[in-house]
Amino acid sequence: MNRSNSNGDKKASGRQGGRFRKKSYARGNAPIKKNHGTKAPSNPDLIRLNKYVANSGVCSRREADIYIAAGNITVNGKPITEMGYKVKLSDEVKFDGRLLNPIKREYVLLNKPRDFSTSGRNEKGKRTALGLISSATKTALEPVGKLHKDSTGLILFTNDGELTKRLNSPKNGLRKIYHIELDKALRSVDLQKIKEGVSVDDKVVKVNDVSFIDSAPKNEVGMEIFSTRSRIVRRIFETLGYQVVKLDRVVYAGLTKKDLPRGHWRYLTEQEVINLGMIK
Hints:
Strand content: 25-35%
Number of strands: 19
Number of helices: 7
Largest sheet: 9 strands, mixed
CATH superfamily of the largest domain: Pseudouridine synthase I, catalytic domain, N-terminal subdomain
CATH class of the largest domain: Alpha Beta
Shape: elongated
Order of helices and strands: EEEHHEEEEEEHEEHEHEEEEHEEEH
Structural class: alpha+beta
CATH architecture of the largest domain: 2-Layer Sandwich
Distance between the termini: 95 Å
Radius of gyration: 33 Å
Helix content: 10-25%
């Protein structure tokens, strides 16, 4: 049936093939999309300069942009002020003359359970502390110092070689607090000997503090010590005729076990990293 407009002209319906019929894209009539070209893949060997600087741990990306604009960053000896500038991982990048490392520094704190080794990589059938933090990062981390397999408590993992070297240095003896359980009650006279300094391998070991734990049996003591000598807490008590049954590191360089259950890990906060970085 034909319809007419007000001028009497006939207007064909869409069904009859009139000029108002919607265009069909059947039978290959679909419009051809213009090819605007494919996006070139990014080069994995290049990294934005601000990210390079931020990954080195110097500052945030936003702050890096400020330093770049000010000319504080050099690439292969040449100051770079261009925003968005990209560098190769093999380039020599310096901030105020200090050579930077582009690998992002990571810091993971673990509350280690007993019977987990802190040395060695993950091996089949071997329980290691590294296995407990395997989901934290894909970056290879190393423990700062060691914690005996039979001991529990805090141990720090990082890929920051400079920090690890400083924390492990004997001159930077870090504050560590242990909760110790002995095989028998500690005599008051031996407690006093520890306070005054016990000789281990012909070298006197000084402790900052040692005391019985409130409302606990006399075979449980707390010790604050700064020494970096291997297994030194156990060796102090062995020298006096005691065996350490349990040894739990509850504080390490200002880091605590608060809200960190046994067997769990967490990333250090920005402030904690800054605090550790102040250790020279």
